[in-house]
Structure formats: C-alpha cells, structure tokens
Amino acid sequence: MNKSMLIGSVFGVTIAAAAAGLAGYTMLGKNGADSAVARQNCYEVAVETPRDPKDEKRIAGTVIGALVGGAVGKDVGDKGITTAAGAAVGAIAGNAAQKKLQENRTVKTTETRCDPAR
C-alpha cells in the first residue's frame, strides 16, 4: 500500500465516521427533545378560600348579643337575674352567630393547574 492510498483511506474513514456521528446526533437530538419537554394539559379552576376575619375574637357579635339579650331579659321578669341571664345567653348566641358568618365568607379566585399529558 502506498502513501497516497493510506492517506485517502484514513481521510475517507474519518469523513464517513463524522457523517454517521452527525446523523446519529441529529436523530437523537430530535427524539431527545420530544422526551425532555413534558407535555401538559393546563386548565383554569375556580377556587374559594376562606377570608381572614377582621374580628378574630368575635367581640362585636358577643357585645351586640349581650346587649340584645340583656334588654330582652330585663323585659321578661325579675330585673336583676333575668337581665344577667339574658345578657349571658345573648353573648353566647351573638358569638356563635358571628362565627358562622365569618366561616361562610370566602374569596373566589382562579388558578391555573396543569396535569401531565398521557
């Protein structure tokens, strides 16, 4: 084998290997890009979250309930005992009523949620 034939063979093998490597890289690059990027199904969802109460200890409901209960108790019977009992029952009822109102207050927002495509 002479020198020019040896150089030509090495050059030919190098070109063939480079072309095969480039073709393989291109094929893997296309398939790899599809599998690397996960497809997702995204959608909007309405979400209700409880609103933070302004009066956490429910003082307003307790005081208003006590005043109304005391006024009703005063009109019912013995002014001292029934007024105190009415105020106590009214305070408990007012506190419970405000608690229920605060639990029912919500804020409506929308969130974007995404699930992987199958």
Itemize the secondary structure elements and their pairings.
Elements: H1 3-36, E1 40-50, H2 59-76, H3 79-104, E2 106-116
Antiparallel strand pairs: 1-2
Helix pairs in contact: 2-3
Distance between the termini: 60 Å
Class by SSE composition: alpha+beta
Helix content: 55-70%
Radius of gyration: 40 Å
- The number of strands is 2
The ordered H/E elements are HEHHE
Integer average pLDDT = 85
Strand order of the largest sheet: 1-2
Give a structural overview.
The protein has two domains: 37 residues; 78 residues, no CATH class. It is an alpha+beta fold. The chain is built from three helices and two strands. α2 runs antiparallel to α3. 11% of the residues are buried. Strands 1-2 form a two-stranded antiparallel sheet. The model has no long low-confidence stretch (mean pLDDT 85). The two termini are 60 Å apart. 66% of the residues lie in helices and 19% in strands.
Relevant terms:
about 120 residues, alpha+beta, about 65% helix, rod-shaped
Overview in brief:
The chain is α+β, with helices and mostly antiparallel strands and 118 residues long.
